Amino acid sequence: MSAKFFFVLKGDLIEKGDSSLQIVSLRNPATKSESKYLLRLECGTSVYEVNCFNEPHRSWFINETVCSNGKIFLPTPIDPLFLLLPYLEQHCTERAVPLEQVLIDDEFPRVAALAEALKPSRIILLTDEKRAGNIVAYRYNESKALAWLVSKCHRLAGIVNKQDGSAARSKNFIKEEKENEVDGDESAALQTAYGLVSDYLSLEMGKKLANALGFPEDDNVSKKRKSVLDLEAVQVKRIKKEEVHETTPIKLPASEKKVTAKAKALAKAASGSKSISSFFKK
């Protein structure tokens, strides 16, 4: 029996059937490890990050069957430039390289499919374009990349600042603040946006972005995030520990017996009296 998975998709993703949708493994731009992405191959390739929500003891009823895998998979759009950035840093720092030679990864060969999702007008946001006849090559430009990231952070901060909830203060609360405190709220929104964007960057690039945004050194992502290996090790240990707790019975302390009023009265009456065997002793 083939494995079943529960996906929550927008209607426009499946209007033309699921034949145009493919789940692929690509290199995560921040951790460099494997992550799952959804590619939509119709009308130009679109890229979606596959997020997973999981809780223990969950199943799904699908038609007449039960799917024991209770995970929920939520594909969300991702800018393919984030996935391209590490490859540009690796292959195009010293010289201009054609895109098909940039998107080469023996461990994740499906990265070549990103070429269909990357338009030249967007690639030049990170690179300098070089042409020789019909050949188009790209050389990585870090200044352009940082300018693109800074612009993305500011646009995202504008959206965050309009939201109510834990990620931003409500408008009514802002009105009650002093003007200088409103400026502080805008700074907080920018830091929130930076945190979201830096989740798709290497630690080194996140550090450079923090400096480009003018954040103090203490606010750098390197100060707030452990190394990726440390985080993964902690996560594995936590999961293993939880699994032990789930399978190992826990001995509860025996509850103290309640003393009834009748028992207390009998104990009081018996206090000071001798046992019957004492009358037969010499």
Structural account:
The chain is of the alpha+beta class and about 280 residues long. It has helices at about 10-15, 80-90, 100, 120-125, 140-160, 170-175, 180-200, 205-210, 220-225, 230-245, 260-270, and strands at about 5, 20-25, 35-40, 45-55, 60, 65, 70-75, 95-100, 125-130, 135-140. Strands 1-7-4-3-2 form a 5-stranded mixed beta sheet, with no helix packed on it. It has a 3-stranded antiparallel beta sheet with strand order 8-10-9. Strands 5-6 form a two-stranded antiparallel sheet.
The fraction of residues in strands falls at 15-25%
Radius of gyration: 31 Å
Number of strands: 10
What's the mean pLDDT score? 77
Globally, the shape reads extended
**Secondary-structure class:** alpha+beta
Largest sheet: 5 strands, mixed
Q: From N to C, what is the helix and strand string?
A: EHEEEEEEHEHHEEHHHHHHH
Distance between the termini: 86 Å
Please count the helical segments.
11
Percent helix range: 40-55%
Low-confidence stretches: 166-176, 235-253
Q: Strand order of the main beta sheet, please?
A: 1-7-4-3-2
Question: What brief labels describe this structure?
Answer:
extended, 282 residues, alpha+beta, single chain, 3-stranded antiparallel beta sheet, 5-stranded mixed beta sheet
What's the topology here?
Elements: E1 6-7, H1 11-14, E2 21-27, E3 34-40, E4 46-53, E5 60-62, E6 65-67, E7 72-77, H2 80-91, E8 97-98, H3 99-102, H4 120-123, E9 127-132, E10 135-140, H5 142-162, H6 171-175, H7 179-198, H8 203-212, H9 221-224, H10 228-247, H11 261-270
Parallel strand pairs: 1-7
Antiparallel strand pairs: 2-3, 3-4, 4-7, 5-6, 8-10, 9-10
Helix pairs in contact: 5-7
